[in-house]
């Protein structure tokens, strides 16, 4: 009898922890997509310059409680958490290196707060994934949010003048800028395509197709050049993968893969080195030039300011700080007052040095290698690949409360935890 009561108590506690982890993930993802400020309050840069995105924001402070809730929900999952850390390694080392970088940051308190936010998001993703049966359960939370976000975005565009950036004109909807809406819309398209495939043949897909139509409308309406280019890249990769699966002979499939990779990089070399006028013409269609709207000059300037700190970097969050004296030359040259270098790999080098950038590359290469080991479908790899491309034009890596960073971390951790569940190292929930 005592054993039965103990078993019931354990199952009840396990259920409570699972709900805490899932609800924390849902709530946090809600604010990652919707933002923590009221919409139509100016651009992201204007908000940061006014201090509206600081930790004094009451919503940001409340979200910090979710870190603690998720940490509590790891009770009973500590062995699984340690198994993940032992097998994964590189993300854990990167997070520890970011913590160490606080020591040499010129703004240690800012860097420490930034690290706490990043570590908290790590805990939220870890807790949710360990309590999910499989990682695709995360799509349920995404779907709930999209049922609200996409209709409200289209309503805002239809009835609220501030939901459109008139100088382009382009939609920004509930997002701070058109580029943010383009990113959210593209990730929404990827999520909905996965949801539709999992519900194939079910009547509920009628609603999912409606949401997909809304997401595509938002994607096109945002007119985000970077999002268009990322979308074309993912479509190109999908076509290659689809054609590769039609080849039954493994040796031919290997030759096809190698050939496709060589052709892909050869085209990049030809267009960017031998015939740059070709890429200039393509970019011109999207209103861009070879300077990527002044970003190349910004990259050069930021890199020059990074040279003196190549090994360790400026520290996590230690470079792009409001009123930083070292930023005066940048703000004098670039009157649009950038708050990032618009190049994620450069910003990682700038903040964490060669050590941090090397760990990031090890994460990426390790992920792509291990993705071939996973037997079940990996829906998150498309998010992962898209974010890798986004970071050539935007800084999405390890930006707290940003959808690009959050989905990158979740996709990365999802692969490793699903692999551990397939191998039986982490038990799979039975129901």
Kindly report the oligomeric state of this protein.
Answer: single chain
Put simply, the count of helices is 17
Please tell me the total number of domains.
1
Total beta strand runs: 2
Share of residues in strands: under 5%
Q: Globular, elongated, flat, extended or rod-shaped: what is the shape?
A: globular
- Tell me the helix content: 55-70%
Separation, N- and C-terminal Cα atoms: 25 Å
Q: Give the biggest beta sheet.
A: 2 strands, antiparallel
Poorly predicted regions: 6-10, 44-53, 272-280
How much is the average pLDDT?
A: 83
Structural class: mainly alpha
Describe the structure.
There is one protein chain. This protein has 431 residues and is an all-alpha fold. The protein has helices spanning 2-34, 44-49, 58-73, 78-88, 90-101, 108-131, 138-159, 178-198, 205-222, 225-245, 250-274, 276-285, 295-306, 328-333, 344-370, 381-390, 403-422, and strands spanning 164-165, 170-171. It has one domain (20-246, 293-422). The chain has a two-stranded antiparallel sheet. A hairpin with a 4-residue loop joins strand 1 and strand 2. Helix 5 packs antiparallel against helix 15 (344-370) and helix 7 (138-159) crosses helix 9. Mean pLDDT is 83; it is low at 6-10, 44-53 and 272-280.
